[in-house]
Amino acid sequence: MSSAARFRLVGGPTVLIEIGGLRLLTDPTFDGPGEYGRPTVRLVKTAPPAITPAELGPVDVALVSHDEHPDNLDRSGRAFLATVPTVLTTASGAGRLGGGTIGLLPWQTHEVPRPDGGVLAVTAVPAQHGPEGCEPVTGDVIGFVLTGADLPSVYVSGDNAALGPVREIAERFGPLDTAVLFAGAARPGALDGALLTLDGRLAAEAAAILGARRVVPAHLDSWGHFTEGLAEFVEAFTAAGLADRLLLDSGV
Fold first, then answer.
1. Are 11 and 27 in contact (CB under 8 A)?
2. What is the distance of C-alpha 13 from the center of its chain?
3. How far apart are CA 200 and CA 231, in angstroms?
C-alpha cells in the first residue's frame, strides 16, 4: 500500500482520518458541554472536544453520517462545515444542510481527487440507528467505506446498532483494514430504551464480521446518554480475543 491511514480522536463521533494525502473528518462536533432540547429526549454533552477547529487545521472532506442529532452534528460543527470543500451526508440531509452538500444513498460512491493524481472512493453504506423500523424516529443514517488504489480500506460505521448492515458491508468490501466503530451503547430514552448505537459486545462481533485488522473506537464519550465507555469497549474486545486490534492512541 502506498500509505497507511492515520486517525486522531477529537471526541464523541469526531475523528480525523488522514489517507491518500487527504484529511477527512467524521461527524463534526466542537461545542462545549451543555444541554440540547429535543422533541422527545434531552441530550447533555458532558465534555469539550480534545482539540478545536483551529488546532485541527484544514479538512478536505466532512463525512456526516446524519444531520438531525446534535451529538453527531452540533452548532459549532455546522459552522465548521462551511470551511470544508466537500461535505458528504445522507440524501435527505443534503437538502436540509444546503449549499454544496452532496447527498448519497446507500451504495452510492463519490470520488475525491487525491493530491497524487489518484482518487479516494467514498461509498455510503447502510446504517440502522436503533431497532428494526426505527427510521421514522431516528431519521436517515449512513456509514462510509473509503477505498482507493494502493490505500487501506476504512469503514466508518456512523450511528449503527445492528449487525445486518455490517454483514452486507462485509460481503461487498471485506476484509477491511480499519473499522471506525461508533459505540457507547446509546440509550437516550427513545424507542423504549433500545440500543441506538453498538455496545461493546456488538462492536466486537462487527469487527470480526468485517475482518477488520484495526479498530478505532469512537462515539463513546462526552455525552450523558451513552451507557458504556471505553473501558467496557476494551473489556468486550478482550473477552472476544480481539483486543490486539484496538487503536486507542488519539494520534495513531
1. no
2. 6
3. 9
pLDDT along the chain (252 residues), means of 10: 81 96 97 79 87 94 91 92 97 92 97 96 90 63 96 96 95 97 81 78 97 96 86 97 88 50
Topology of domain 6-245, per CATH?
Metallo-beta-lactamase; Chain A (3.60.15)
Give the closest residue to 27 by CA, choosing from 194, 166, 142.
142
Q: What angle do CA 8, 35, 61 make, to 5 degrees?
A: 30
What amino acid is encoded at 74 in this protein? Answer: D
3-class state of residue 128 by DSSP: coil
CA distance 205 to 154: 17
How distant, in Å, are the alpha carbons of 3, 118, 202, 248 from that of 181?
22, 27, 10, 12
Separation CA 240–CA 118 (nearest Å): 38
**Residue 1: per-residue pLDDT:** 40
Residue where the block lists cell 468486550: 236
Task: Determine contact, residues 237/245, Cβ cutoff 8 Å.
Answer: yes
Pairing verdict, β 61-63 and 6-11: unpaired
* Confidence (pLDDT) at 125: 98
Q: Is 99 exposed, middle or buried (0-12, 13-18, 19+ CB in 10 A)?
A: exposed
Cα dihedral 67, 68, 70, 74 sign: positive
Q: Please, where are the H alpha helices in 153-243? A: 163-173, 200-210, 230-239
Supply 4's cell numbers: 497507511
Rounded to whole angstroms, how far apart are CA atoms 173 and 60?
24
Cα–Cα distance, 154 to 199 (Å, whole number): 20
Whole-prediction pTM? 0.93
Question: Around Cβ 249, how many Cβ atoms within 10 Å?
Answer: 10
